[in-house]
Specification:
Order of helices and strands: HEHEHEEHE
Distance between the termini: 33 Å
Strand order of the largest sheet: 1-2-3-4-5
Shape: elongated
Structural class: alpha/beta
Length: 154
């Protein structure tokens, strides 16, 4: 499943940057849910418990920006300040992230480059009559905004 590998790679990249920024991974949580577009009532309840519990994370990384915006909303509902209490990072880089409050730090996915790589892979698969090819890695850039400055936060 390419999307699972991609999300894991995003999180690994975030972890590297977090450590380089002088932060501990001990209290970082990866939020994985059924839909990247919204939280179910049970998932929202679990998130609120995580944010208000005694072992609250210092950062939450979400594979998608819509999910990260739900985390921002949950932080506000729990009376938490972002990024002072909890840093929030989105993993897709959609335009919405510029309009959240606070504005959201994201990993911006290079959709044009990804599309070109997929096209090239499909053409290669057709030409060589192959069902599978090794995956391709395309780096993405961090867009620093208020929800998690690059310098240590939390």
């Amino acid at each position: 499943d390419i999307s699972h590998i991609s999300n894991a790679d995003k999180f690994f990249g975030f972890q590297q940057g977090w450590i380089e920024g002088g932060q501990s991974l001990e209290s970082v949580r990866y939020l994985q849910v059924a839909s990247v577009n919204q939280l179910s009532p049970e998932e929202n309840e679990n998130l609120l418990e995580l944010l208000t519990g005694g072992n609250r994370p210092s950062a939450v990384f979400c594979a998608g920006d819509l999910l990260a915006s739900a985390v921002l909303k949950a932080c506000a509902a729990a009376g938490l300040s972002v990024p002072e209490d909890v840093a929030v990072i989105g993993g897709t880089g959609i335009t919405l992230a510029e309009h959240t409050s606070p504005t959201m730090t994201v990993l911006a996915q290079p959709m044009t480059e990804i599309g070109r790589a997929v096209e090239a892979m499909l053409v290669e698969m057709i030409r060589n009559k192959q069902n599978r090819l090794p995956g391709r890695y395309i780096s993405c850039s961090l867009v620093e905004r208020a929800s998690c400055p690059v310098e240590p936060c939390g």
